Each structure stands twice: as structure tokens, then as C-alpha cells.
Amino acid sequence: MPENTPRTQRSTRKRGRRNPLATAALIAIGLVFTGGAYAAFSTSTASAEVDMASQQTIDEGKKLFQANCATCHGLAAQGTDNAPSLIGVGAASVDFQVGTGRMPMQMQGPQALEKPPQFTDDETKALAAFVASLAPGPAIPPADITSGGGDTSRGGELFRINCAMCHNVAGAGGALTEGKFAPPLTTVSGVHIYEAMITGPQNMPVFNDLNLTPEDKRDIITYLKYVQDTPSPGGLDLGALGPVSEGLFIWIFGIGAIVALTVWITAKSN
Predict the structure, then answer these.
(1) Which domain holds residue 148?
(2) In this structure, is residue 44 part of a structural domain?
(3) Which residues pair with 182 in a beta bridge?
(4) Residue 209 DSSP one-character state
(5) Does residue 149 sit in helix, strand or coil?
(6) What are the binding positions for heme c 2 in this chain (predicted)?
(7) What is the phi/psi pair of residue 155, to 5°?
(8) Is 69 annotated as a binding residue?
(9) Is 23 annotated as a binding residue?
(10) In the structure, what pLDDT confidence band is assigned to residue 219 with cuts at 50, 70 and 90?
(11) What is the Cα–Cα distance from 26 to 32, expressed in whole angstroms?
């Protein structure tokens, strides 16, 4: 048998050795996955650990409020010439306005526009806790009534009766007067839908428990979640804006195709 020369031994060691770049890549991938999993876990559990009744949370919310909101709403949330009083609006109103990015406002206009939130969920809860401590108001609804699980058919009926005249039957939104509009509900969470119903933000009326019971609101949320998760059974929904967009589509493409075919046949006959 041939003896292992030093060169052969070195070649064998090189073939069995892992490339240093591969080792570094594996470590980097492991760190990314570990960090991502930890961030997701900590984000999902952090909001559940916020005790909105604790004085510490209220004090944190007060500091955030005075640093970011008092310019318009006043140091004690009493309101100014630039913004209304927040005394008595409750935690639900703050959670909706701040959680959807409508507050703080980016610019003055007919209504506050939705945008990426400027505060974390914990900070939003702290702000809501501070405002709720000033006077009684609507509280943030519990998860068991905002996660759906109600009667979809009944929720659709309630939505068509109470909401569709502004938001469209499919929740696609619609235009109002003076540059205002009812926003689309295609991506809104169940919590924010419920909060909007009990606080009546901007042009929306308040639907208290005498107008719509908590079970009614849960059914409406269930219907909207069904609309959000279910694709259009008829194909392209054209924005779900109803007969206007559908008629325009038929007029442009349908009548246009007929006219083009007529012109083509006439040209061939000549």
C-alpha cells in the first residue's frame, strides 16, 4: 500500500476542513433567525403585559403626552384653539387615533389621515391609560369580542343597514362632502373597528350599546374579516366600488371592442 506522504496528508486535511466563510454564514443565519424569533415573541407579549391601571403606566403616558401631544391638546388635555379637549374621550379613542397613525396629525386638512403609527403599542397603551385616568370614557374592548367568531350573515346585514351607505357594502370606502371620505376597511383590525364604532372618530357616528350591542359589533367585525380574507368570487373586483366602476369598465373595454371589431369588418369589406 502506498504510504501517506506529507503532501497527501495536507490534501486530506484540506478536503475535510469547512470553509471559514461557510461557518460565518451559518452563524449569521442562526443569529438572524434567533433575533427575529425573539423580536416577534417579545412584540406579541409586550402589549399583553401593559397594566393600564397602574400608576407607573399612567405616569409614563403623561410624560409621552406632555412631550408629544400637549402642544395642540394642552398640558392637561383640556384642549386649545388648535385641538379639542380629550377629557372623557376614553382609552379607546386614543388607542384608535394613535394606533392607526392618525394622531399626531401630519398636516391640517379636512380629516386626519391614516399613516404608519408613530408610537409603539406599549407607548400607545400608556397614552391611552393617561387620558383614561382624567375622566371616564370608552375602554379598549377585550380581544374575545374583537377577534370575530360571530355570525357572518347577520353581521353582513347589520353592516349594510348601518355602515354601507358610507363605507360601501364591501368596506371599500367612499367619498363624503368637503373633501372628507369614509376610509376603506379592507385592512383595519377588529380592535380598531370596534373602537371606531364606540368613539365615532371624525365624521362617523357613535354606535353605543343601545344602537348596536357588543354582540352586534362582533358580528359586524366577523363579516368584515370574512370580506378581508375572501377573494372576489367573480374575478377582478374593480376596487369593489359597485356599478360605477363596472359600468365604466364595460363601456371602455366592451363597447370599445365592439367598435374596433366593426371598424375592422368595414375595412375588410372594402
Answers:
(1) 141-231
(2) no
(3) 174
(4) T
(5) coil
(6) 163, 166-167
(7) -60, -40
(8) yes
(9) no
(10) very high
(11) 10
CATH code for the domain of 178: 1.10.760.10
| Domain presence at residue 240 | no
Q: Indicate the SS3 state at residue 26.
A: helix
> Is 167 one of the annotated binding-site residues?
yes
* CA distances for 91 relative to 60, 72, 96, 117, angstroms: 15, 18, 9, 16
> Do 76 and 158 lie in a common domain?
no
pLDDT at 5: 56
- Would you state the pLDDT for residue 47? 42
pTM: 0.70
Residue 72 annotated as part of some ligand binding site:
yes
The answer to whether 140 is annotated as binding is: no
Q: State how far the alpha carbon of 245 is from the alpha carbons of 18, 165, 184, 218, 258, in Å.
A: 61, 17, 16, 31, 19
Longest dimension (CA), the chain: 98
Q: Return the higher-pLDDT residue of 45 and 68.
A: 68
- Mean pLDDT to the nearest integer, 222-250: 73
Same domain membership, residue 185 and residue 107? no
* 44 confidence band (pLDDT: 50, 70, 90): very low
Mean pLDDT of the chain: 84
**Does 134 share its domain with 145?**
no
Q: How many domains does the chain have?
A: 2
Residue ranges of E strands in the chain: 174-175, 181-182
